[in-house]
Amino acid sequence: MSELVFLILQFLDEEKFKESVHRLEKESGFFFNTKYFDEKVLAGEWDEVEKYLSGFTKLDDNRYSMKIFFEIRKQKYLEALDKQDKAKAVEILVQDLRVFSTFNEELYKEITQLLTLHNFRENEQLSKYGDTKTARTIMLGELKKLIEANPLFRDKLTFPTLRSSRLRTLINQSLNWQHQLCKNPRPNPDIKTLFTDHTCAVPNGPLAPPQVNQPITTLTKPTAFPSLGAHAPFPPGAAVAAAANAGALASWMAAAASGASTVQAAAVTPASIPMPQNQVSILKRPPATPGVVDYQNPEHELMKRLRPAPSVEEVTYPAPRQHAPPVSLEDLPLKAALALHQGSTVTSMEFHPMQDTLLLVGSATGEITLWELAAREKLVSRPFKIWDMANCSPPLQALIAKETPMSVIRVAWSPDGNFIGVAYAKHLIHLYAFSGPNELRQHAEVDAHVGAVNDLAFANPNRQLCVVTCGDDQLIKVWDVSGRKHFTFEGHEAPVYSICPHHKENIQFIFSTAIDGKIKAWLYDNMGSRVDYDAPGKWCTTMLYSADGTRLFSCGTSKDGDVFLVEWNESEGSIKRTYLGFQKKLAGMVQFDTSKNHFLAVGQDAQIKFWDMDNINVLTSTDAEGGLPALPRLRFNREGNLLAVTTADNGFKILANQAGFRSLRAMETSAFERMRTPADSSLTKAPVPGAPVASVSCKVELGSPVRPSPMLNGVDPPKPRVDDLADNPRPWQLAEILDPAQCRQATLPDTGSSTKVVRLLYTNSGAGILALGFNGIQRLWKWVRNEQNPSGKATAAAVPQHWQPNSGLLMTNDVSGVNLEEANPCIALSKNDSYVMSAAGGKVSLFNMMTFKVMTTFMPPPPPSSFLAFHPQDNNIIAVGMEDSTIHIYNVRVDEVKSKLKGHLKRITGLAFSTTLSILVSSAADALICFWSIDTWEKRKSVVIPMPAGKVAVGDTRVQFHVDQIRILAVHETQLAILDASKMECIRQWIPQDSLSSHITSAVYACNSQLIYTTFRDGNIGVFDADTLGLRCRISPSAYLPQVNQGLSPLVVAAHPQEPNQFAVGLNDGSVKVIEPTEAEGKWGMVPPSEAINTSPSTTSNQTP
């Protein structure tokens, strides 16, 4: 479609149809003519400027578009004022500029005030405004920058390079082709019309041999077939080379040649991927005439192999796989090696393509986690978060504003293991760059589809790494790893469920399946799908190749719950064999995988079933020692010796064969050897996987039903060896940071008005830190993007700037008449970092984060506010905890308290929302945790945190939700506690002890909720494992405080919103420090073994109604 438009645009321009050219540019939206736009702007033809823009963007599409329209209308307004045409200026103000008042009311007021000035240049900001021509030129420069930065104009600013009169050339070539196909071609044909195909009239005399026009199909060079436009994806190549490779093309369905498949158009951007020279442009060709050589092309092979099967009846081929090694059950990973707890429902898993014990896991909360299975450790975890809201489409922004859950649909590794792709349930894909176990960097965020992104896979067309996606919008799209789109394939009539990119020699293609059961195949070109067939079951189907790429399988489900696992015959486009063994019907979609070139595995009926690829009957099955869901998800590693399967308790198990156990043991030994010193390496022995090591949630426990028989080098050891393993636990040592050189740290610049920091926040963007002082003054530091800090995010490697607006304003709370010694300052930040709400014993103030101006105040004392929290689904609703123990649900927009919640006995000290459970959790100075429904605001239950012996329930208790929105961290000076909000009970506690025996001052989850950063009154900082509350690392005061610290101690701690190993602490002298592990370490210690964890499991029974 786009190529045809470009050809027409070139034709219209050459024929001087100027108005038609620009109308087509605007209506198609394929090419933004900057020259034409510049002319209209400099001429001040504002109506035409906006009309032309409207073909490419709307005012509210994104912030770039809004700024473009604002600058145009502002210039239009200023020109009216300059002409002293106040009536026109008022008209522009009311009709054109008022729309911006909803986004920035202060700016709109300033613009309105210009009407009161005799000359608007009296305004300081407009004092340098010159004449109209100069002003338009300056504005045009700004507009160009905005347009180039606007993602909606991506790939639309450059017209493809075409030879002159390209459309005429193609028409002439078509006529030549038609003439060559005439049965009685004349030397000088008379072509009178393009409306019908050309044929030469039959001559009156005998037939003359066609001496002039040789049939085109006899030519050995494809020069008569130039590509479809200068930027077509397949440059011309030798037909002979195409014929040589065509026989290897895995394109098994050919009915398009017989009319069984319609060809749908694919929209191809000018940045299409260049393809190998042997892949010629694919054109439909007439039947070859006798005696004429018909050079086959990739499409021909694709069509031949995709010939539709007459039915889904099994087609038997007696010839077995030759020279296949004998199949043994010992080759299958059937024994449970370990069970790991993810914390939320696992939705997708993928092993690293080269490192067999590295598993990538996606979950229903949007979190992705990288596990090292041998060490049973989470290496890296990333919760779902929008990286750049400005590049998100309005529908996606609306979903995000509503806190719509963003479940992971698919995780995938690139073939080289350097990139990770994540597809989400709404619109987005995320691409991460992976350079090591702890190095997972944000690489690209793409608003890929409307609705869910149902599948994602990597491909290498022409050796260029690309990402292929499909979605609910019925489209398949191809992107490069920078997020730039190359192809959009249209043709499915239902949401596309799965994709399977593959290649045979130099021929690259993609299979796709939709939820209506249709299977299609695509080449990387603009010729549409080559297939349109029904999958067995005619519903959701997934296709996979064997490891060597020679055998194609599919597994799907019908709407009635029937499962179809089949192998396809690629050369015939028919079903080669249908596998048996599915008796029970289950609602939902099954998952399957292939292991090397031997086995198939399907998760169904709470078990894993295995087949030999050459036998239609079930080879064996396993329930993995119990705990599997009805339709478990599964994934083999590269070697097929490990199998990851999901469990019903928000985790997964690893099944292994003997080689798999050896692999786990070898990797574990290697990891532990690196941690040991030469002196003790000979004294300790790494345990094999399956050794009985007690743990809380992330490891195989001694009494666990999934604990496998201990294996050494793949052989069951005698029982005395098991006892030996139990007596020799894995060596572990607490990481202690005693010296400044053992960590990275940065002290934020002193602002001159320092007072002890009582509240501390990172901005949601991760680029700034906000501190609220004891005196009610808020300070903001921002990191800048530069060579030293290319991400512009908070880091200990660079010192930020203390940021203030040009006005010099401070964000100061109302403290008139307040006794600061008795006040409880509180703060909350809006999700988009635009506003901060805070109080320090007086009224609650809402500040603009750009101007520091107070937008409004509310809730004047008495009683004063003691804690603030924005409602996660509506920024206009605020939960306000009060000193009198009540909680007010306040609507800022209507300035009204909607509900008043009563249930605590002392002042409110913590509030946290869970949209997953639809509850508000509150804590107070009475050690009571209350659970409230956010639908009715009624109290569901209260739980008293058990106090240690001899301790009194006094002091603040703070609460924070885990990323799973189910577990809660409760922090009191006497303990850390983990609660299960779904059961409304306390499940684990840690009491200060040993080297960390001082009172706790603050604690917070890391952004991925795998760590808990805890500060103590004596200056120590503890880094705890969030699942077990085991201490991983202790940071001594000597590591980050001056030698003569004069009673310095951390009062508050905050965790970076994207970097799980970075945190900041606010001290009682007003200073703020950012702390990270060294680059060499990359993380804070190791997960401690169970015997090193001194916590008390708790099932609190002291609950109050």
UniProtKB/TrEMBL annotation:
<dbReference type="InterPro" id="IPR006594">
    <property type="entry name" value="LisH"/>
</dbReference>
<feature type="domain" description="CTLH">
    <location>
        <begin position="30"/>
        <end position="88"/>
    </location>
</feature>
<protein>
    <recommendedName>
        <fullName>CTLH domain-containing protein</fullName>
    </recommendedName>
</protein>
<dbReference type="Pfam" id="PF17814">
    <property type="entry name" value="LisH_TPL"/>
</dbReference>
<feature type="repeat" description="WD">
    <location>
        <begin position="446"/>
        <end position="482"/>
    </location>
</feature>
<dbReference type="Pfam" id="PF00400">
    <property type="entry name" value="WD40"/>
</dbReference>
<keyword id="KW-0853">WD repeat</keyword>
<keyword id="KW-0677">Repeat</keyword>
<dbReference type="InterPro" id="IPR054532">
    <property type="entry name" value="TPL_SMU1_LisH-like"/>
</dbReference>
<dbReference type="InterPro" id="IPR006595">
    <property type="entry name" value="CTLH_C"/>
</dbReference>
<dbReference type="Pfam" id="PF21889">
    <property type="entry name" value="TPR1-like_2nd"/>
</dbReference>
<dbReference type="InterPro" id="IPR054080">
    <property type="entry name" value="TPR1-like_2nd"/>
</dbReference>
<dbReference type="InterPro" id="IPR015943">
    <property type="entry name" value="WD40/YVTN_repeat-like_dom_sf"/>
</dbReference>
<feature type="repeat" description="WD">
    <location>
        <begin position="901"/>
        <end position="942"/>
    </location>
</feature>
<dbReference type="InterPro" id="IPR001680">
    <property type="entry name" value="WD40_rpt"/>
</dbReference>
<dbReference type="Pfam" id="PF21359">
    <property type="entry name" value="zf_topless"/>
</dbReference>
<dbReference type="InterPro" id="IPR019775">
    <property type="entry name" value="WD40_repeat_CS"/>
</dbReference>
<dbReference type="InterPro" id="IPR036322">
    <property type="entry name" value="WD40_repeat_dom_sf"/>
</dbReference>
<feature type="compositionally biased region" description="Low complexity">
    <location>
        <begin position="1094"/>
        <end position="1105"/>
    </location>
</feature>
<dbReference type="InterPro" id="IPR048419">
    <property type="entry name" value="Topless_Znf"/>
</dbReference>
<dbReference type="InterPro" id="IPR027728">
    <property type="entry name" value="Topless_fam"/>
</dbReference>
<feature type="region of interest" description="Disordered">
    <location>
        <begin position="1083"/>
        <end position="1105"/>
    </location>
</feature>
